[in-house]
Design goal:
Elements: H1 24-27, H2 31-47, H3 62-71, H4 78-86, H5 106-122, E1 140-144, E2 150-153, E3 160-163, E4 175-177, H6 178-190, E5 194-196, E6 202-204
Antiparallel strand pairs: 1-2, 2-3, 3-4, 5-6
């Protein structure tokens, strides 16, 4: 799969026109589209013999998603609802969708966000104006977790995920829709940045990553 015309923008989203952020209408995909691209990706991994994809959990109903969201007083973007309706995360440590990334069940994702936000309050960081842009907030619901999780920012309806970092918050990395992110995952397999080993686990070649040769505009698209 080739990706030839997208431009990754920091503190923005991927668009096909340099210097212009995508509109909410352009970013929004139907639940059917999101489910379709995720299932295509999962099937490709199955065909390659990936072990982790077999550990995806059954998806949630719309009522279950509503109930969990209400319990945590959040409104999930449509992309997020589509993802957890497709599968409610994975078994612990499966790394089913991407290397070094864990796909949490929705309840775990919501609880993680609340715990991190409470930690910021307990440490006195929540009221520090200098830290306002970087602290973890309860609205940052992780789709794919690790040290620097890919999160939906539920303060807005934008259907994008962004990598949160303790140094830059959400300001220093690229925001992408689920559909665009999965396209880059296909690119990673096509170009040898990612591969599946004979025993069904991930292998990564960072020298083949986008931006490895100096193009910083796409440096974080596989993060």
């Amino acid at each position: 799969m080739m990706i030839t015309s997208t431009v990754a923008r920091r503190a923005g989203v991927v668009t096909d026109e340099p210097g212009r952020a995508a509109t909410l209408k352009e970013m929004t995909m139907s639940a059917t589209e999101v489910t379709h691209v995720l299932e295509q990706w999962a099937q490709r991994l199955r065909d390659l013999g990936a072990r982790g994809v077999g550990q995806l959990r059954a998806g949630l109903s719309s009522d279950q998603i509503d109930a969990l969201s209400a319990q945590y007083d959040l409104t999930l973007p449509e992309d997020a609802r589509a993802i957890w309706a497709w599968h409610d995360g994975e078994d612990t440590g499966a790394q089913s969708l991407a290397p070094y990334r864990e796909f949490p069940p929705l309840r775990d994702a919501l609880e993680y966000a609340r715990t991190c936000a409470q930690n910021a309050i307990d440490w006195g960081a929540a009221d520090d104006e200098e830290l306002a842009a970087i602290i973890y907030r309860r609205e940052f619901v992780p789709f794919l977790g690790y040290q620097h999780p890919l999160v939906f920012d539920c303060r807005t309806p934008a259907p994008t995920t962004t990598m949160w970092t303790p140094d830059g918050g959400l300001e220093e990395t690229i925001s992408m829709t689920t559909v665009e992110r999965v396209r880059w995952w296909h690119w990673a397999l096509d170009h040898g940045a990612w591969s599946i080993t004979a025993d069904g686990t991930w292998a990564v070649d960072f020298s083949r990553y986008p931006g490895a040769k100096g193009d910083l505009s796409v440096r974080d698209v596989l993060s």
